[in-house]
């Protein structure tokens, strides 16, 4: 049971953020004095766009925003478009009465707010407990809100979050505190959260989505193929001007390939003619001259 409660609390805290002071939160509260006061107390400690709302007959909506010094009217169309303040919120926290859901047209949208959550009770003890979880109250904030609303510290912070060991009293019973923490989670609703883009799996990295942890085996490396575009080539030889003229002259005087056969035939005919002339000379020397 202890492990189960710890896991639920860890999941809830994961929705909240320890850096709420670095982001702007839209807090929407019903137009009742006690609840508006909770919103003002939050706005005095964290960057907050505080909006009070009232739903009348036929879901006629009345919205007012706190400027820090006065309340101003907000048209529903301006709210729906997200242009009701100079800078839009990073997250939203909507508080509604038990059994009286906020109309859909009044809820923040992902177009101008990355995440939105809802608390479905206005009972002060669980409300402060969940608000403190959302903002990750420091020990100082827990103490201040407990004194402000005349509640016991353990009642609004049953998990003892951000309470150091030297602030705890002797004889505290962990089981009874965890039971209160678990029951309050029924009032917490996550409307939507930022979309997380899954990163591509890398070979050799454990895949967390699988039921059993396993390491994806690395594929055997293939032998690199010769890339004809990147092979080394012989260095270029830079010729002088005289070498260039000699090369051009040799190219122009060289016989064409088709004339080689004719040149060889003429050389053979010349050799045959020379042989005939030699034999004729020898015969003339051997024949006696006529007297």
Structure description:
The chain has 291 residues and is of the alpha/beta class. It is 37% helix and 13% strand. The chain contains nine helices and seven strands. It has helices at residues 2-15, 33-43, 76-81, 124-135, 139-148, 153-156, 174-184, 241-253, 260-286; strands at residues 25-30, 48-55, 61-66, 71-74, 91-95, 115-119, 188-192. α1 packs across α7. The protein starts with a helix and ends in a 5-residue tail after the last helix.
- Uncertain spans, ≥5 residues at pLDDT below 50? 1-10, 12-18, 205-213, 222-241
Helical element count? 9
Specify the structural class: alpha/beta
Find the count of extended strands (DSSP E, 2+ residues).
7
Beta-strand portion reads 5-15%
What is the succession of H and E elements?
Answer: HEHEEEHEEHHHHEHH
- Calculate Rg over CA atoms: 47 Å
State the shape. globular
Oligomer: single chain
Largest sheet: 7 strands, mixed
The whole-number mean of residue pLDDT values reads 74
**What's the N-to-C terminus distance?**
154 Å
Query: What is the strand arrangement across the widest sheet?
Result: 4-3-2-1-5-6-7
- Estimate percent helicity: 25-40%
């Amino acid at each position: 049971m202890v492990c189960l409660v710890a896991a639920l609390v860890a999941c809830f805290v994961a929705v909240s953020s320890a850096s709420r002071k670095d982001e702007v939160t839209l807090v929407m509260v019903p137009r009742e004095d006690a609840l508006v006061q909770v919103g003002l107390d939050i706005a005095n400690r964290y960057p907050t766009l505080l909006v009070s709302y009232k739903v009348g007959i036929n879901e006629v909506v009345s919205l007012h925003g706190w400027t820090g010094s006065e309340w101003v009217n907000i048209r529903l169309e301006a709210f729906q478009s997200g242009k009701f303040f100079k800078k839009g919120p990073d997250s939203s926290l909507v508080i509604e009465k038990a059994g009286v859901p906020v109309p859909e047209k009044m809820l923040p949208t992902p177009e101008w707010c990355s995440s939105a959550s809802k608390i479905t009770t206005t009972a002060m003890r669980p409300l402060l407990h969940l608000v403190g979880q959302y903002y990750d109250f420091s020990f100082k904030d827990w103490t201040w809100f407990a004194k402000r609303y005349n509640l016991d510290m353990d009642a609004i912070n049953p998990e003892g979050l951000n309470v150091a060991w030297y602030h705890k009293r002797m004889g505290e019973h962990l089981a009874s505190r965890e039971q209160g923490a678990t029951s309050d989670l029924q009032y917490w609703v996550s409307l939507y959260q930022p979309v997380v883009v899954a990163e591509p799996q890398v070979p050799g990295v454990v895949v967390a989505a699988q039921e059993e942890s396993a390491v994806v085996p690395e594929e055997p490396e293939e032998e690199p193929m010769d890339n004809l575009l990147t092979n080394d080539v012989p260095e270029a030889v830079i010729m002088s001007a005289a070498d260039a003229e000699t090369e051009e002259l040799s190219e122009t005087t060289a016989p064409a390939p088709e004339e080689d056969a004719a040149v060889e035939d003429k050389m053979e005919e010349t050799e045959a003619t020379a042989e005939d002339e030699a034999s004729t000379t020898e015969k003339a020397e051997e024949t006696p001259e006529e007297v």
